[in-house]
Amino acid sequence: MDFFKFLEPIEWVVAWIMYLCHQGLVFLGMGDGPGLGWVFSIVGLVIIIRILLIPLFFKQIKASRGMQMLQPEMQAIQKKYKGKSDPASREAMSRETMELYKKHGTNPFASCLPILLQSPIFFALFRVLNGLVPISTGDADPIGPINAAVAKDIESSSLFGAHLSDVFLKTDDLQAKIVIGALIVAMCATTFFTQRQLTMKNMPKSALEGPMASTQKMMLYVFPFIFAVSGVNFPVGVLVYWTTTNLWSMGQQFYTIKRMPAPGSEAERLMLERKKRKAAAKGIVEEAAPVIEQPRGQRQQPKRKDRQKPGTPRVITGTTAPSDKVEDAPVDDETGGTAQGTGKGSPSPKKPKK
């Protein structure tokens, strides 16, 4: 059983989109048969797929921003349960983490969703391009509208001398290797700058610290390295697809970051500066927020209440006005007690001696 059998419906959709894009380009004046029309049909495939994924793209931006913004709270939870490995602590930590994701409206899976949804399309295009030669010779069944004649036209189409089905490790043509190498470099570079644009420019400084930020920075360099190693096994058409989709992502992110930057990020600071310059060019003077000056001088220290010493008489003042002076209660020399009285401290009559 073929492991990629589930990709056959997606391959059929990819084949039809490429074919219809090529027919549209022919209608606009491009030549039929082998040529750049089939290269641009792959670009058309990227544009159609990415338009369909625009809602998910904005969810990805929001999720990635949310994952970075919640890092201080996430670190607090991790610190709270550090060193606790009992089931109750693990369950409580998981529950608080999920509540934190719910509070910020994000989760780690949402930030990877567009990439995961594009993966089947990527592999379907890979299989369509790899199947062009056997389809053109009649050794494989057609895929949708791509029959033997169409497959031969696509396979014969080239970009700067490299055929769409050429692979770096499977071609002996030096010119094709140079073109494929340039496409691999372009794919890796656009992948790097796309990730860097999202993580470095649209995040506040507080979100660029901690374990999650370190992982993001590491992946910033790991992904291009993975593509560089695996790119030598990709056909030219797949390299064109991935480079084009990276360029599309960079454009989308540039617009999103410019219009809707994350609070506290470098992009937000630049946006506010642009607004100030535009307002100044129109002669609009923004009113500065009033600054409330705090009174200067020595801060009044709080008064400490005197603690009652043992044996010290307690004076009951009643409702004496603040201006009235309360005299100290006299001490009875014979009994050692205090004289009870009113607010004036008048002595009470002595008890008769027995």
TrEMBL record:
Molecular function via GO: membrane insertase activity
Every Membrane insertase YidC/Oxa/ALB C-terminal domain range: 38-257
Transmembrane residue ranges: 12-30, 36-58, 178-198, 219-242
Topological category with respect to the lipid bilayer: Multi-pass membrane protein
GO biological process terms, semicolon-separated: protein insertion into membrane; protein transport
Keywords (A to Z) from UniProt: Cell membrane, Chaperone, Membrane, Protein transport, Transmembrane, Transmembrane helix, Transport
Domain of life: Bacteria
Cell compartments where the protein resides: Cell membrane; Membrane
GO CC aspect terms: plasma membrane
CDD domains the record matches: 5TM_YidC_Alb3 (cd20070)
Keyword Transport: yes
Residues covered by region (Disordered): 286-354
UniProt main location, coarse: membrane
InterPro entries (UniProt xref): YidC/ALB3/OXA1/COX18 (IPR001708), YidC/Oxa/ALB_C (IPR028055), YidC_ALB_C (IPR047196)
One Pfam family of this chain: 60KD_IMP
NCBIfam families in the cross-refs: PRK01315.1, yidC_oxa1_cterm
General function of this protein: Required for the insertion and/or proper folding and/or complex formation of integral membrane proteins into the membrane. Involved in integration of membrane proteins that insert both dependently and independently of the Sec translocase complex, as well as at least some lipoproteins. Aids folding of multispanning membrane proteins.
Subunit structure: Interacts with the Sec translocase complex via SecD. Specifically interacts with transmembrane segments of nascent integral membrane proteins during membrane integration.
Similarity section: Belongs to the OXA1/ALB3/YidC family. Type 1 subfamily.
Protein name in UniProt: Membrane protein insertase YidC
Originating species: Oerskovia enterophila
Gene expressing this chain: misCA
